[in-house]
Design brief:
With about 375 residues, this protein is of the alpha+beta class. It folds into two domains: about 5-75; about 95-375, Phospholipase A1 (Outer membrane phospholipase (ompla), Chain C), CATH 2.40.230.10. The chain has helices spanning about 5-40, 45-65, 75, 85-90, 100-105, 290-295, and strands spanning about 120, 125-135, 160-170, 185-195, 205-225, 230-245, 255-265, 270-280, 300-305, 310-320, 325-335, 345-355, 370-375. A hairpin with an 8-residue loop joins strand 10 (about 310-320) and strand 11. Helix 1 packs antiparallel against helix 2 (about 45-65). About 20% of the residues are buried.
Length: about 375
């Protein structure tokens, strides 16, 4: 019996059909591989199991026929209401997103730098340093009655300084509800600084003094243009208590309310200023009369990011009087290492030079020069 089609023509049809089937198998294989990746990236457990169940159906269909079964749309694309792992990480770490300025990240001034409330963050540097000074207060005194140590203690001029400082945002959007850009915030912070006589074995290495400083801070975001391309980034107010937790005759404490503001030039320069008013106490409860005349009534802090590794700072405290006391603190911070994303590590070599009054609360009326070298962790 003669074939209805010539052999060459039938052979051509077979090749075309085989090529078409091969292309469909390749397409199905690609769909299969891509779907595995989509299933693995799904964060919801039930959705991930459903994805693998449908993938098993796709595999069976691919074995039986080269035509791939179309998967539901929710597997082919990530639903908008279901954040992926990467977006979840970005959301919780937005206050460290390098595309925003240091001040914006530090105070979470923008929606893009918001890391939510009741998250523990650093405030001042967490540091440990070895210090040397030109003098040490062996017999602290105050002009208040019964506030002078009974006898001197043979402290060493070399000691160790420890500083702990943390804060948390307790509320946000108080006055900026509906603002698509800025977000105001209310913070609570606690800082502690201790001087430890680590090298004084002859007196059993005591802690010479420890200062405690709880603080309530309100921050309001701004974005006002200033001369020479500077930007005013925030204003705010605060209430702070500082004391050394000692009983008489070494008790020292005071309370202040303050106003503050911060400005920046690109990500290279930052200037922050505070001016405060001491909350008055009666003479019987005042541990340190005239403390605002020695430590000061205002503070101006400047930071310069010289490059990715080096930051320089200067902090000036002044009594805002004709005969100014106050203090000056110069700092150099050197980054040690880098983060996985290439940004600066939070660990710094931290060198400081301080001269003036108030290096610690027990020295509110004693001038002192201190040089220190240590390590600090900064939360930028």
């Amino acid at each position: 019996m003669t074939s209805a089609f010539p052999i060459p023509f039938a052979f051509s049809i077979l090749l075309l059909t085989t090529g078409h089937v091969s292309a469909q198998v390749t397409l199905a294989t690609q769909v299969h591989d891509n779907t595995i990746q989509i299933c693995a990236a799904t964060t919801d457990n039930a959705a991930r199991l459903d994805c693998y169940d449908q993938l098993a159906g796709l595999t069976a269909a691919k074995s039986a026929t080269p035509v791939a079964r179309k998967l539901p749309d929710r597997i082919g694309t990530v639903e908008k209401n279901e954040p992926t792992a990467s977006t979840e990480i970005a959301r919780t770490d937005a206050c460290h997103d390098g595309q925003y300025s240091v001040l914006s990240r530090f105070w979470e001034l923008e929606n893009g730098t918001d890391c939510g409330t009741f998250r523990i963050r650093g405030y001042r540097p967490l540091s440990i340093s070895v210090v040397g000074s030109n003098t040490v207060n062996e017999q602290p005194s105050s002009s208040a009655a019964n506030h002078t140590a009974a006898a001197p203690i043979n402290y060493s001029n070399s000691e160790t300084r420890l500083q702990l400082s943390m804060r948390t945002k307790v509320a946000q959007g108080l006055l900026t509800q509906g603002d698509s850009q800025g977000k105001d915030s209310l913070w609570f912070s606690y800082s502690q600084q201790s001087y430890w006589q680590l090298f004084s074995s002859h007196i059993s290495r005591p802690f010479r003094t420890t200062d405690h400083e709880p603080e309530v801070i309100y921050v309001y975001p701004t974005d006002a243009k200033l001369p020479f391309d500077w930007r005013l980034r925030y204003t705010g107010a605060g209430l702070v208590h500082q004391s050394n937790g000692q009983s008489l005759p070494l008790s020292r404490s005071w309370n202040r309310v303050y106003l503050m503001a911060g400005a920046e030039l690109d990500d290279r320069w930052m200037v922050q200023a505070r001016v405060w008013k001491r909350i008055a106490e009666n003479a019987a409860s005042d541990d340190n009369p005239g403390i605002e005349n020695t430590i000061g009534r205002g503070e101006l802090k400047t930071m310069w990011n010289f490059n990715q590794q080096h930051t320089f700072g200067a902090t000036w405290l002044t009594s805002l009087r004709q005969q100014s006391n106050g203090s000056i603190r110069l700092e150099w911070l050197r980054s040690l290492g880098a983060r996985d994303d290439g940004g600066k590590s939070n660990l710094r070599l931290h060198t400081q030079l301080f001269s003036g009054y108030g290096d610690s609360l027990i020295d509110y009326n004693r001038k002192r020069t201190v040089f220190s070298v240590g390590l600090s962790l900064l939360d930028f």
